[in-house]
Amino acid sequence: MSSVRGKVAAVTGAGSGIGRQLAFELARRGARLAVSDVDDLGLADTADRAGALGADVHAAHLDVSDRAAVEAHAAAVAEHFGVVHQVYNNAGVAGGSTVLETDWAEYDRVWSVNLFGVLHGTKAFLPHLVASGDGHVVNVSSLNGIMGQGRSTAYCASKFGVRGFTESLRAEMLAAGHPVRVTVVHPGGVRTNIATAAFEHARQQGAEATPQEEARRRLYEEKLLKMPPEQAARIVVDGVEAGRPRILVGNDARAVDLLVRLAPRLYPALVARAERRFAGGA
């Protein structure tokens, strides 16, 4: 077991959801924090509350899709604390629809945050983690990094990419003997605002917000996004302290993982059937 106490941990997407609760959980366990987000108000609230829990907190506005900004942020965190031990590449967005309906701009938007944001954070912080002598990369994928799902091609591709990148990175660290552990996280249905944010983004881009789509979004949140984010954060940090290379968050993530392993040829049809029932229930 490895404790996070006294470690310097950088958390992206810390202004809300799982990222915010990761910051709080790390603060409770005695970590020093570098928190970042594009949501300045949410980030300030996270920083204040983490500080009230006793953490030394460095907060910065950060768009993880901006490679130069992430590199500058990593350098600033290392200068502020003198060392960086852990990075939690958590920032993410949902978006897109079917392949026929999703334009290239939406693919670019989702991938720039979900996939390239993780790459940017990993590459920027990795030299500091190696230098710390006790580093840890924690990359947040998804249940949809295990299972493909219709109407989510942009999101699924990004999260499968995070999984593949992280597993390859783990092999590299082991082969090179670097003192850096690597973990991929697959959350299931966690009660965050990611679905609502994607819906609002689509409306702002001119997509038609039909009553059916609104009902579908509401049903999705009520039926599938059930786990409190603070519970998800505890599971993640417990897994990090235990040194687990792969963390499944929630019974739904574990069930999907088992389904895909046992029935790789059958599961797409089962997912499509469930999607039709879900859409019909909306």
Task: Describe this structure as you would to a colleague.
- The protein is of the alpha/beta class and 282 residues long.
- The protein has one domain: Rossmann fold, CATH 3.40.50.720.
- Helix content is 56%, strand content 13%.
- The protein is built from eleven helices and seven strands.
Task: Provide the descriptors you would attach to this structure in a database record.
single chain; 282 residues; Rossmann fold; 7-stranded parallel sheet
Brief synopsis:
With 282 residues, the protein is of the alpha/beta class. The protein has helices at 17-28, 40-52, 67-81, 104-114, 116-132, 153-176, 194-204, 211-223, 229-242, 251-262, 267-281; strands spanning 8-11, 32-37, 57-61, 86-89, 135-140, 180-187, 246-249.
